[in-house]
Amino acid sequence: MTTRQAGALVLGDPRFSKDIRNWAAHRRGEIPADWPLLFIVAGKGLLTTDGETHRRLRLPVQRALAPRRVQALAPRIEAVTDRLLAALADVPAGAETDLHRGFALPLPLEVICSLLGVPEEGAVREELHELSAAAMNSEAAPEEVRDTVARRFPAALMALIERKRARGDRDDLTMDLVTALDRGELTEAEVIGNLVVTVIGGHETTANLICHAVRGLLTHPGTLSAARARQEAGEDPWPDVVEEALRWESPSRHVMFRYATQDVPVEDTVIREGEAVLVPLPAIQRCPHTFPRPPADEFAPGRPDVSRHLAFGAGPHRCPGATLARLEARIALRRLFDAFPRLALVPGPVRRVPSLGINGYRELPVVLR
Ligand code: HEM
User: Fold this and answer.
1) How many angstroms does the Cα of residue 348 sit away from the middle of ligand 1?
2) What is the pLDDT at residue 268?
């Protein structure tokens, strides 16, 4: 069994549960009440439920992110991309700028906020980003994370719902969830839980995907010229670039906790009933047994076995936002390199975000022209 097969097994096999009640150490009272991740793994939501409850919670999100509805967002994504690129054109030639903050992050944030119907006016969009970053910050004090996840994030989302109700908003993911709430199909806590997962999952990861692809292309120069040559020949090279970026630098560092509901043999070990498991995607996706040629550490768009990556997870919790993330990244990369064909990285080591869940850079300093 390769590490990739072991990872896929843990992610997809029904003997692994997402429900914290199946975690023996938690049942025995061994997990301190102030452990920062407790508020995330113990909350009631998409990522902490199994079976029928999970299917009921997932349905409205999956509907909103269905490929046809996502495809209809393309003009909106293109417009946001062009607006951000136009703003970057004001950066003086030769000056350093942070591509993460100025482009990769605001793009998916704007898109997820449109999908959720977050008003453009006011600072709600920025607030949602600040709350996501605070919730995923593994360096923050436990009480700070608790306050973000248990109080500030739900309060901001409840205020958003009230504001949207008052405006008579319809036809967006937030209001789909509110309708399910009004019909008694979801509870208030479930609506908030779904919104939190969608906001966090919907922008940090995609921003990191865009940054990883840019860094892959700029640190492997032959790959950028090959993509350009294909584009000039009338082909679309960006899907291959995006898939390879997802493999080379998984935007998720670990797929969060699953608990074995019985003893499960995995590779040369046995995961015992009640044990918690994290799936380390960056390591799995650099495994030379799964990605032998070109060498797994190389960024090589078009590699034959790229579809074996697990960047969007596997099984019933597989990311419902995959189509949207891919579309955003393809549009972003094509337009970015069209607008700034001489884009270059500022030399030096990249600083990563301190997070168990997120594999991303704190910033991506570049020179645009
Ligand atoms: C490159 C971008 C993205 C990556 C790498 C990514 C990765 C993942 C992964 C690995 C999971 C599975 C978690 C698990 O099994 O425990 C997941 C779930 C999820 N993602 Fe994404 N995601 C991305 C973009 C998005 C976007 C754009 C959205 C929404 C607009 C989104 C919404 C969600 C939701 C709601 C779940 C929970 C699904 C469930 O539990 O059934 N993600 N994502």
Assistant:
1) 31
2) 87
